[in-house]
C-alpha cells in the first residue's frame, strides 16, 4: 500500500465556486475567507446591506496569496420574491450556471418571554431561518447539480445552532422560536441528504455554540460576559474563527465528499453538560490553564 492518493488536495477547494448567505460579517465572513484561502476561485457573499458587503468583499480580496475573488449580491433571504432575485443574480455571477457550494448561513434571533412573544417575531424568525434556506436551496438545485459529480459532489451547508439540538435559553430572554427554527434545519438537512444525493449534492448541518459575533454578543453579555461564558465551557473557551473555518472547509473539500446528512456540533462539548456545572467550571478553568 502507498500513501493516500491526492492527499495534498484533500482539504483544498481549488477551482470551486461558492455562495454564502450572511457573508458580510461573523461566521459567514470567516467561511468566505477560509474558502478563498483554501483555493476557491470565486466566493459570492450575500447580506441585506450593501455597505457591509462592499467592505467585506474588499477585506476578502485583500487576503494575501489568494487566487480567487470575492463578489457580493445584496438581498434578503426572507421572501420568495427576494430569493428569486438572488437566484437570478447568482446565475449571472457563476460560470456555466454551475455552483459547487451553497452555505445557508444567514440567520436571526429575537428574544423574549414565551407567553408575551409577539407573533411578528415568530414570523420573522421562521422567514429568515427556515423559509429562506428552504426556498433558496430548492431554487439553486439545478446549479448545484450542474457542478456535482459522484466522487466530488456539490455541497449544501446549513448553519443551525446548538439551540437547534438542546434547550439553551428559556425565560425572560428566551429564544424558543429561534431554537425550534434551527431544530427544523436539522431535519431539513436529513431530508435533503436523501432528496439530493442522486443529483450528486450532499447536505450537512453545522451547529455552533457561542462564537463572539454581532448576533451572539448581546446574549453573551447577558450571560455575564466572555469570561463567564468561556468558563462555562468544558474547553474553557468560546468558538474561534479557525474552528468554523476548518469545519466548513472539511465539509466542502474532497475530504468531506462522503459525509451526507450529518450534524456537526461546534461547541467544545458544552451541549453534553449535565450534573453540577460549578464543579465542571472549576475543571474547565484548570484545564484552560494547562
Ligand atoms: N455566533 C454564534 O454564536 C452562533 C451560534 C449558533 C448559531 N449561529 C448561526 O450562525 C449564523 C451566522 O450568525 P453570526 O453569529 O455570524 O451572525 P452575524 O454576525 O449577525 O451575521 C449575520 C449575517 O447575516 C446577514 N443577514 C441577516 N439577516 C439576513 C437576511 N434576512 N438575509 C440575508 N442576510 C442576512 C447579516 O448582514 P445584514 O445585516 O447586512 O443582512 C450578516 O452578514 C446564523 O444562522 C446564526 O443563527 C451563530
Automatic annotation (TrEMBL):
Record's keyword terms, sorted: NADP, Oxidoreductase
Family stated for the protein in its record: Belongs to the short-chain dehydrogenases/reductases (SDR) family.
Gene3D superfamilies linked: NAD(P)-binding Rossmann-like Domain (3.40.50.720)
Molecular-function GO terms, alphabetical: oxidoreductase activity
Residue span, Ketoreductase domain: 16-210
PANTHER family: 7-ALPHA-HYDROXYSTEROID DEHYDROGENASE (PTHR43618), NAD(P)-BINDING PROTEIN (PTHR43618:SF3)
Protein name in the entry: Ketoreductase domain-containing protein
Organism of origin: Cladophialophora psammophila CBS 110553
